[in-house]
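hiii, so i know i said id send this last week but things got crazy w the move. better late than never?? heres the sequnce for the chain we talked about at the cafe, plus the structure i predicted for it. fair warning i was half asleep when i ran it
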Amino acid sequence: MRKYVIMMALMTMTAGPLLGQVEIGAFNKYTHFDKSYGTLRNRDVFEGVGGRLGVFFSHTWELELGASYSENDAETFFKGFSGNAAPAIRYVPVHLRLNWNKQLGSRFSWILGAGPAYNRYLSSSSALPSFKGHDWAISGMTGLRFRLNNWLALRVDGTADYIPSPNSGKTAVVTQFQGINVAVPKHNTNLGAEFGLSIMRGTRCDKMSDGTTITPTSTSTQPGGTVTFSSTSTNCGKPDEVKYTVAGPGTISSDGRYTAGAAGNATVTACGEHNKLCSAATVTVAAPPPPSDNPTPMGPRMLTRCELNPGTAAPRIDQPVSYTATLYFSDGTTALLPNAVLSAPGGSVSGNSVSWSSEGGKTVVVTCGNGAGGTPVTATATVDVQRFAIVIRDSVYFEIDQTKIYRTDDQTQLGEVAKVLIAHPDIRLIIDGHADADGSVGHNSRLAMNRALSMKKFLADHGVPVDRMTIVLRSFGECVPVAS
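okay and structure toks below
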């Protein structure tokens, strides 16, 4: 009697992920039958259990298969039957839906789905009128998913099945015994409510740690000057691409280089492409003050100090930083130092920009001239150069015992990586190969190395100068798993 429940439980527990994230769940279901059956316990409402198996093929779209089982007695449907003598209904609906998922904050998702449904009806006794048979339906669903943690979610759904030719209206059913107590239904719309839990496999996305930063957060320059911003963004614990925009005078390039326009205030905003989280920085664009027509006689004008802007920066290793030097005088006036000569131990200076080829703390120094007594006046800025790393993890897959990169998503992602490597051939690249535990250790070690070589060849085929780069190939075989 409970075999359908057991079959569904086995199906949901043993199904493995095909692509991306997999949702495996179980639920209680309550079904209201439209114009169909009167039941002994709760008129027209069936209570049952079910399970679901969903496969995500993007962050938004999910293909889901669900089935449930419920049983009750038809108390008033057939003439002459009531109470314990009523015929038993066993109801087994199966739904296939395409679900659209909309993230609402860090934990809630709204789900909207539609697809076909197959409904199977069974009866327990051949001596009583039977509902045995089936019908087809067009199914719709909407619900909410609440993430309890990164692998378990609470889910509440409402369903509607429109049945154009219901089983309860078929001739083989309604002509049994003495007939039925209700009008023969031409079509039905069954409503359902599902409450259950889902295990989310294949994901470790924690939105709570997502964010976007921008450096520097405030700076100044003169019309036509440039400032280089650096940003980091995280989505689901992984690096996210940053998009820059500017409001106010000036323009900004895709790599964060701001060029000032007329005098005024500008706001530079960096946003993560996928996490949609942003940080903003302010830029004051000020022209040097014009010389006074009637200067007030004062004592000798002396240089008291100078300042490098930005005073601190944290650029990525491939991003230069542009500097301006401001002079401060004893009469309270300031001026920008044209053609400032910068020095940066371990760095490369080009005009007013400095870049570095190694990570870590750096110093930039400018000599601004002589102050009182001929003492040289200098200014210093500090830089924390960030490592430029490209990490591909849980992204490139191979078929069993194969080395070909076959998935379109992987090829697209690696194509974007190739563009970065072409622009920065001085990057040191490490390619690690892995395999599963099928086969001998030696075979899997060779297979993993061939997969790493396949990755290197793929990059070379897309224009990466692999012969001029420092590339380390490593084989871990089956000894260092990257997944369960």
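btw Helices lie at 3-14, 171-174, 408-423, 441-461. thought thatd interest u
miss u guys!!
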